[in-house]
Amino acid sequence: MLEQACQQAGLKLTHQRLEIFSELAASTDHPSAEALHRRLRQRMPTLSLDTIYRTLASLEENGLITRVKTGESQARFEAEQRQHHHLVCERCHEIIDFQWQTFDDSVLPDEILQWGKIKNKNAILHGVCKKCLDSV
Amino acid sequence: MLEQACQQAGLKLTHQRLEIFSELAASTDHPSAEALHRRLRQRMPTLSLDTIYRTLASLEENGLITRVKTGESQARFEAEQRQHHHLVCERCHEIIDFQWQTFDDSVLPDEILQWGKIKNKNAILHGVCKKCLDSV
DNA sequence: CTATGTGCAAAGCGTTTGCGACGGT
DNA sequence: ACCGTCGCAAACGCTTTGCACATAG
């Protein structure tokens, strides 16, 4: 999958790109660049944080990964490209993916349809997860 | 309005706070700290950017304004506190507010209701506005 | 009069970039 | 051998902070 995409985009399939992508694809917690760096460093001790940033940027440009817009200072990433929504714990910053067919099917207000071209619509929920509620 | 809120929060009602808040309340374009600074500097030449940041932070803490989570590097702010949603042009970064009653009324998937305590749910749309579509 | 807020300048943080060395094709 | 990529270190932009003075209550 990554292989074809890289070829298509004229990107070389390097060891670093492969590892960064597969680590992200295996993660469900929407890691930050730093978090990925910490994890990958164990297998690849010389991997630099800069390379993570550069790789994430080029994978994003090619639509292979997504930068999750949380509004926090650190950017978070995901490999999941199917339509889904996010639920963010404002205490521990955990991010959960979920499906919501009712939302996907619902029609936008008329005024919006005339605004321009809508590329995507997503729901974002904020709250406090059970773990954080319990640990008070 | 700001007056009561400041009293309640134990904040002094300074000239700067008043001007920053009223400028933001009068803006519909979700300005950044820098944008506010540029606008206010004309009336208040000595107003520093730091004060804008500090003031926005304390107003936000007290629920008087909201930091809009766009995922861009610069934070954007709004004074509107009624439930509403955002539509972002990915070309010119314009942010439009809109109402969407159907969404507000719709019920969340069961799995989500068990996750913890949901504080708010919002829709965020991305696309390209007419102005940007035309100017290509 | 006292506690808070302000302006200034300097530091902080996540992220990006210029450079020379490295490695895939 | 060539061009893209990597690691290093230094720069960057936005935001935050320590300090001394000013100001609201």
Topology:
Two copies of one chain form a homodimer.
Chain A: H1 2-9, H2 15-26, H3 33-41, H4 49-61, E1 66-68, E2 76-78, E3 85-89, E4 95-98, H5 101-105, H6 110-113, E5 116-129, H7 130-134
Parallel strand pairs in A: 3-5
Antiparallel strand pairs in A: 1-2, 3-4
Chain B binds a DNA duplex (25 and 25 nucleotides) through α2 and α4.
What does this structure look like?
Two copies of one chain form a homodimer. Chain A has two domains: 2-78, Winged helix-like DNA-binding domain superfamily/Winged helix DNA-binding domain (Arc Repressor Mutant, subunit A, Orthogonal Bundle), CATH 1.10.10; 85-134, Dna Ligase, domain 1. Chain A has seven helices and five strands; from the N terminus they run ααααββββααβα. The first copy, chain A, has helices spanning 2-9, 15-26, 33-41, 49-61, 101-105, 110-113, 130-134, and strands at residues 66-68, 76-78, 85-89, 95-98, 116-129. Chain A has a three-stranded mixed β-sheet. A two-stranded antiparallel sheet of chain A has the order 1-2. The longest helix of chain A has 13 residues, at 49-61. Chain A is flat. At the A-B interface, β5 and α7 of A face β5 and α7 of B. The structure holds a DNA duplex (25 and 25 nucleotides).
